[in-house]
Amino acid sequence: MRIVLLGAPGSGKGTQAARLQAKHGVPQVSSGDLLRDAVARKTDLGLQAKAVMESGQLVSDDIVLGLIRDRLSRPDAANGFILDGFPRNIDQANSLAALLNDIGQPLEAVLLLDVRKDLLLQRLAGRRICPKCGAVYNVMSMASGATGCTNDGAELYQRPDDKEEVIGKRLEVYEAQTRPLVEHYTKLGLLRAVAGEGELDDVFERMEAAALAKPVPAGKVTVRATQAKRAPLKTVAKAAQKSIKKSVKKGAKKVAAKAAKPAKKAAKKAAKKKVVRAKSTKKASKKTSKPVAAKKKKSKPVARKK
Ligand SMILES: [Zn+2]
């Protein structure tokens, strides 16, 4: 199982990754955790990262990729990994692909945990945390009137970045970052969207199925895509031609009906002739629709005066 996990804040990505890790014995590799760990253990890369962060700059991709390479070479990653928090852009995705090819462990899937935006907002804004034991609650599922931790009674608090005005911004940043990655991995045939709403167990089953599904070879994806595009196009074109012909006839009849009674028969014949004569159906529809449009225009100024 070699996967990248994509999911908005509040999508439940962390919970699901932990369950995949527990059941399948593949480590969850979070770029944030790797950085903190390397800094704490004062490894070469950790010391480099620390110096960069202390100067107020972002840690370079090279450092993060170095940390990922080290992490994936450990024995517990022999059966795969769940990458979380990396990549965040196309450059990083390409560097990651090169690294994984280099160590002979190419990605098998990119899972996108999909949750509606209003539900994300609800989950994040309702989140409360115990300052003592770190337990996470949600006001939506807490007993009414309860404000304390059920473990130790400590007063729960809301993280500053879970305030509603901040959440909106976080979700915007996530969407802007993720959209190009979704396109990128879709093109590569790796992306699998997983519905992230509903019971945790059901979501987990879907995640697992998506993670274990065999990758579709890139060649097959393109063949399928072109077949899918070509077949409907023909039928769509035929259906469109039919409906255009029908609507042209209908339009002609309407125009004819609105004409003065003596002219009715003549108009019908004329309209039919126009349709028959017209080489392209477009021309015919233009001719027949003009009188109707003109009538509508005339009535507008009257209505405005009132
Ligand atoms: Zn507590």
Order of helices and strands: EHEHHHEHEHEEHEHHHH
- What gyration radius follows from the Cα positions, in whole Å? 30 Å
Helix/strand class: alpha/beta
Share of helical residues: 55-70%
Q: What is the makeup of the main sheet?
A: 5 strands, parallel
Strand order of the largest sheet: 2-3-1-4-7
Mean pLDDT rating: 77
pLDDT below 50 for ≥5 consecutive residues: which ranges?
Answer: 220-238, 249-262, 278-306
Strand content: 5-15%
The number of helical elements comes to: 11
Hetero compounds: zinc ion
What do these coordinates show?
The protein has 306 residues and is of the alpha/beta class. The chain has 11 helices and 7 strands. The chain has helices at residues 13-24, 31-41, 44-54, 61-72, 90-102, 117-125, 164-187, 200-212, 218-258, 264-277, 281-305, and strands at residues 2-7, 28-30, 81-84, 109-114, 127-129, 136-138, 191-195. The strands form 2 sheets. It has a 5-stranded parallel sheet, sandwiched between helices. A two-stranded antiparallel ribbon has the order 5-6. Strand 5 and strand 6 (136-138) form a beta hairpin. Helix 2 crosses helix 3 (44-54) and helix 10 (264-277) packs across helix 11 (281-305). It is globular, with a radius of gyration of 30 Å. The N and C termini lie far apart (70 Å). Residues 220-238, 249-262 and 278-306 have low confidence and may be disordered. The structure holds zinc ion. Zinc ion binds next to loops.
